[in-house]
Amino acid sequence: MKHLLNQKKTIPILKNIQDIDLVGYGKSIEIFKQVGNPKDVVKKFSLDKFSGSHAIGHTRMATESAITTDGSHPYSTGEDECLVHNGSLSNHNNLRRSLIKDGIEFKSQNDTEVAAGYISNSLKNKTSLKETLTNGLKDLDGFYTFITGTQKGFAVLRDEIACKPAVIAETKDYVAIASEFQAMAHLPDVNKADIYEPKPGIVYSWGS
Amino acid sequence: MCGIVGIYLKNKKYNKQLGKLLTGMMNNMASRGPDSAGFAIYNKSSKFKYTVCLQKNFELKNLKKILKSKLTNTKYKLIADHVVIETSSKPEKNNSNFKKYSRY
After folding, report:
1. Which residues contact A89 (CB under 8 A, 6 or more apart)?
2. Per the domain annotation, does A181 fall within a domain?
3. Residue B75: CB partners within 8 Å, gap ≥ 6?
4. How many domains does chain A have?
5. Whole-structure pTM over 0.95, yes or no?
6. What value of ipTM does the predicted structure carry?
7. B53: annotated active-site residue
8. Nearest chain B Cα distance for residue A29, angstroms
9. B95/A contact by beta carbon, under 8 A
10. A125 lies within 8 A of chain B by CB
11. Which residues form the domain of A75?
């Protein structure tokens, strides 16, 4: 299996261990991903036992690359950063080439990995998450709803045509986002939640 | 297709149920993406965490053996084929075990 995360090579202690792949790292983040039906995957990782401040999930129908663990989301390309994506990018090959010139390496052929690299590269240059995603509207061609997580919270962005669905439910206790409302039907007090569709081309962020 | 979900807690009321809430969200999106699944959980620690995936035939005890002398104050959490290594050793320039990140 190819390395899931490129920075493994920048962490020498892990670099020398051929039999592991680094999935994510940071002060807060823990990432788990695997091939298989989501219902089996979440059971395998005992997701229901986890506690924390925020969380992001992805269920994949493969389009741009093979069904493998390193083709699975979330993609993490920086400390406490991760990205999930519904949609597909059409300029990821060009963008990959230009990011490689900036010193970034990609291990999979996946389009989302390129977007994750784009975001990390921008954050590395001290651009805020909101500004990074706003710039992404120009630089990332294709259709997408992104959720990108940082240590403090997460942000949501849909392409300007809003090809891919998204719905937000917000109460005094939480903000939830999902591709379809049915994903949130079990959440506490969801009947009293403020429910709206995020507008195309607008960055929504919480905590960050 | 693909399904994406996220939940951000504004206060501590549901911290302990975060995984449970996300489980329901992912189960309900299984029909949008039956091929694979993954999730990121944010739970702040005073230490540094690395999530690694063990390849076939490589066991946690082997990993522990390799890292024993290199990391300090370390805990290992094994879940399926993933291990969360929680350690005081940070990947920063002052720690001789790690180089400063050259990328990202």
Report:
1. A64, A95, A111, A112, A114, A115, A140, A141, A142, A144
2. no
3. B85, B86, B87
4. 1
5. no
6. 0.93
7. no
8. 5
9. no
10. no
11. 6-158
